[in-house]
Amino acid sequence: MNDxxxxxxxxxxxxxxxxxCSFGAVKTTRRDTTSAAMRAQAAAPFEPFRADLPxxxxxxxxxxxxxxxxxxxxxxxxxxxxLPGFETPVYGYDGLYPGPTIRARKGRETVVRQSNQLGFxxxxxxxxxxxxxxxxxxxxxxxxxxxxxxxxxxxxxxAATLWYHDHAHGHTARSIHYGMAAFYLLEDEREEELDLPRxxxxxxxxxxxxxxxxDGSFKYEQNIDVGFLGDTxxxxxxxxxxxxxxxRRYRLRFLNASNAREYGLKLxxxxxxxxxxxxxxxxxxxxxxxxxxxxxxxxxxxxDFSQYRAGDEIVLANTLGEGSTAAVMRFDVxxxxxxxxxxxxxxxxxxxxxxPPAVDRGFDLSxxxxxxxxxxxxxxxxxxxxxxxxxxxxxxxxxxxxTNPSNRLHPMHLHGFHFRVLEPKGVRGWKDTIAVRPGETVxxxxxxxxxxxRFVFHCHALEHGDFGMxxxxxxxx
Length: 477
Ligand code: C2O
Ligand code: CU
Ligand code: CU
Known about the structure:
Shape: globular
Bound molecules: CU-O-CU linkage, copper (II) ion
CATH topology of the domain at 357-476: Immunoglobulin-like
Number of helices: 6
Distance between the termini: 46 Å
Largest sheet: 7 strands, mixed
Strand content: 35-45%
Helix content: 10-25%
CATH class of the domain at 357-476: Mainly Beta
CATH architecture of the domain at 357-476: Sandwich
Mean pLDDT: 91
Oligomer: single chain
Radius of gyration: 21 Å
Structural class: mainly beta
């Protein structure tokens, strides 16, 4: 069984690599081709590697004083030029897709006033943030049309690639799909002392898949079973873009902000070094041929482009995709670049001790039928805001085992707290989201610090979360 699976896996990967290599040829001859995948691609008005990679703008604080940065955002309609020559209607933070990046500093509070200028309820969740429950963006804490809410993020945690996104229960999938997602980059002194690439060499990359109608608008079709899968890869709001790079080290912060698609990221040749994941730096840098990124996960890597020659065009492939989803972007290596100022030390961070687990819990992940149709379940239960599914004590840790008898991927995510991964071995660092693939069993060890209160944990395949795959926990003092 295992053997069969892995062999099929390898075959798939080989097939995708072949597709990537012929990407240029496919593009020019696609009108003559008859395969269904190619027809779908022809219907989408885009050319890969034409658009330059956009970098989302950084939000400017309205005030900066006494250990606190204050920001204001309006959640409203806007348009984005995702396909050249088309204006795609979006819902976004300040009307932007993707939203503006918030830069935060450990030890300084970030205050964000979010006003809802849309005609339906929204809220804002800081994904990966350890924040008091009131400011977490619980799916039932909503901002009504015309109202505003001021979120306070203490930033006591270590540097990490976080993101903020809509979390209004039942329509998170749509809201994020239509644009409500952005980076929140938390920095700290310790990370700076490592001399990792920064400034223009530190690049956030938001990966999403979309489908488009003839007029350039998003074509969202709800699929509760698989979740939404689009035929077009969009990075920072541009279709399969290219990025000009110098022959130097870059930090690439991958965020999978797709509804349900997982990516297997692999450079056409050469390797990358993983330095961080959801909760920040890994204990040690790890060389990788490929990194898999499930929905909501973050993987930070350093790529040393001096391993290539000027003029090289290096495709970043998605080995889990095919046809028009087999390539994510391309790096075009320029000449020159100057002296390297940055490095990747072997040791990055000490993770520190975690108390031994006080309780063992098991959760199976399955599809059932509720009163109003299909329903995703955790341990036989579907989300009920009136019910607290588990209680635990502040400061303790537990062992949670997820089993996945279903045939879908479930990226399981915990609000408010981070966990270590016990099984499978080899996943290092603090995480908040873990892929549980079909047939897999995954064991994590969450540590319930520092805030007590009510938090959710759920599947981050967005349609699964909207259709019940979410439970509530109460962390008591
Ligand atoms: Cu991205 Cu409930 O989270
Ligand atoms: Cu979250
Ligand atoms: Cu799921």
